[in-house]
């Protein structure tokens, strides 16, 4: 059975790319958000199994949104997405509670590997 996934990225083409990867693999993309503020709101209403979260976004960063989500749902499965060269931010996100990370540009195999690991983790 596929995961219910929330995709958070300020770039529409990145959201579309992830949507295609997940839906082709049998997962359901239940929602999308373009910034950290929307991410927290959508998480509360949609309760997805997995969130892919861009780190650098307008209004509220992915790390701030991650902390807010984990504050009211500590078991949330949030995977951070970042570009090469953002290792410091990635380490900060993992320390804040991110379950894993995916480096842009995305490779479908890596994205699905992370999603499958989240499925196994429950």
Topology (elements, then pairings):
Blueprint (H helix, E strand, L loop, with lengths): L3 E5 L3 H13 L3 E6 L2 H11 L3 E5 L7 H11 L5 E6 L3 H10 L3 E5 L3 H14 L1
Parallel strand pairs: 1-2, 1-3, 3-4, 4-5
Helix pairs in contact: 2-3, 3-4
In a nutshell, what does this entry contain?
By secondary structure, the chain is α/β, with parallel strands linked by helices. It has helices at 12-24, 36-46, 62-72, 87-96, 108-121; strands at 4-8, 28-33, 50-54, 78-83, 100-104. The protein has five helices and five strands; from the N terminus they run βαβαβαβαβα.
Explain what this protein looks like in three dimensions:
The structure is a single chain. The chain has helices at 12-24, 36-46, 62-72, 87-96, 108-121, and strands at 4-8, 28-33, 50-54, 78-83, 100-104. By secondary structure, it is an alpha/beta fold. 33% of the residues are buried. It contains five helices and five strands, in the order E-H-E-H-E-H-E-H-E-H.
Order of helices and strands: EHEHEHEHEH
| Overall morphology | globular
Give the strand line-up of the largest sheet.
2-1-3-4-5
Task: Kindly report how far apart the N and C termini lie.
Answer: 12 Å
What is the β-strand count? 5
Low-confidence stretches: none
Mean pLDDT across the residues is 92
Q: What's the main sheet like?
A: 5 strands, parallel
Q: Approximately how much beta-strand content do the residues carry?
A: 15-25%
